[in-house]
Amino acid sequence: MPVPVINLAQMREWERATWVTGQTEAEVIRRVGQQIAAHAQELTQSGDLILILAGKGHNGDDARAVVEFLDDRKIEILNVTAPGNDLAALRSALLQKPALIVDGLFGIGLTRALDEDWKKVIAAVNAAKIPVLAVDIPSGLNADTGEQFGAAIRAAVTLTVGAPKIGMLAAKAWPFVGRLEVAEDVGLIPCPQQSDLNWTQPEDFQNFPPPRPVAGHKGSFGHLAIVAGSCGFHGAGVLTSRAAQRAQPGLVTLFTDEKVYGTLAAQLQAVMVNIWKPKLKFLNSTSAILIGPGLAAPGVAGKLKAPMRKLWRDSQLPMVVDASALDWLPLGEFQTNAIRVITPHPGEAARLLQTTAQTVQADRVKSLREISKSLGHCWVVLKGHQTLIGRSTGEIFVNPSGNPHLAQGGSGDVLAGFIAGLLAQPELSVDAGKTIRYAVWQHGAAADALQARSTNWIIEDLAGKIGSVC
């Protein structure tokens, strides 16, 4: 199940409800330590030195609990309780070049500005450029706002306990939080809190997509029509089509500019390639439409904008719009119960809202809601770090997968193609929200799998990998 994103007060209430049941803080601390240890093992190798920085609160107890579960690593624990006195010991420990630092200095309960001695401690850790695994929250960060209390640890990975805290999702917190992971099974009772903002977990997609019927045929799994590619941007048509194929709809037809038809047709085999006409007529078997990738050549908008707007308003088919075509969208309502999906990055979202990318990033949830509302309550995939999926009302889901190496040209084309390829399948369009979330998670998880294998993968590799991560 998705995990609600909560605030500090809700976390404290959750803890109190757990202690009432008889569960002990000591047992929860032990389990947290076990999960920290598991992450530390993933980030290091046998025999590596791990430096544990432990404060005097429960965050420090969590960090110290790691020792029981790390038999094959060298461990040094530095209890930092008087920062002015402990700074020299910290600097000496950092000179040993540990492979990983576990940050257990302060937890989510910190509410005061840090004094100069603590700032020096944090500055020394950050200056060492050693990967940091933060326990629950990077020390010095406000769990509710994402602001710093004067200084904050810059973590490579943050393992937060129970559920993400709302401040960790603020764009200003991202440089300190790093990759956010959730330690769910630590002995707390099931979360009694609810939120409109929810954190997606890989377990949400167990047995999804469902097995195909044994007697299914290509007609059972839909026919996706893609309008993509123009002079100078033909690669988008290829990437989008190949990603759509990885979703395995029954048929895929690419409609492209006459000027690049030969180039695209020569690179695609199972995908049927046609030349688009201004009226955009599709076969009766068409079950979903994707418009936008690579349609940025001069003159294309003048030919396709009007028919695309008509399709958006009137078609009953699921429709995905990306890239250049986002600027052609009509405001207002579309056909009742029709599935509409747009996939803007922050810059595109800013154009839709007639604002700046900085404003979008400052409140991504608000931006998503406003875009969806202006476009008839469509689904919005607001791309970027911690991609958001949602609509003008209802739940919004935060995607945890992916890494900075997705920042390559063509990444969005792959995502749009995969989403559309899934929604073209009648069974997968029934719960469009889950299908879109799955596509976004697969996109990021495929990038994570590629990054674990090689540091120089390219988007063509992503188009081949997406859909295969379990």
Can you lay out the helices and strands and say which pair or pack?
Layout: E1 3-4, H1 8-20, H2 25-43, E2 49-54, H3 58-64, E3 74-79, H4 83-94, E4 100-104, H5 116-127, E5 132-135, E6 157-161, H6 174-177, E7 179-183, E8 197-199, E9 223-227, H7 234-246, E10 251-256, H8 261-267, E11 272-275, E12 288-291, H9 300-314, E13 319-321, E14 340-342, H10 346-353, H11 357-362, H12 364-374, E15 379-382, E16 388-390, E17 396-398, H13 411-423, H14 432-453, H15 459-465
Helix pairs in contact: 2-3, 4-5, 7-13, 7-15, 10-12, 13-14
* Termini Cα gap: 16 Å
Proportion of helical residues: 25-40%
Query: What amount of the residues lies in strands?
Result: 15-25%
List the strand order in the largest sheet: 1-8-17-16-15-14-13-12-9-10-11
CATH domain class name of the largest domain:
Alpha Beta
Q: Main sheet? A: 11 strands, mixed
- Output the number of helix runs: 15
Low-confidence stretches: none
Q: Supply the CATH superfamily name of the largest domain.
A: Ribokinase
Structural class: alpha/beta
Tell me the count of domains: 2
> What characteristic shape results from the CA principal axes?
elongated
Strand count: 17
- Gyration radius (Cα, Å) is 24 Å
The CATH architecture name of the largest domain reads 3-Layer(aba) Sandwich
The CATH topology of the largest domain is what? UDP-N-acetylmuramoyl-L-alanine:D-glutamate ligase
**Mean of pLDDT:** 96
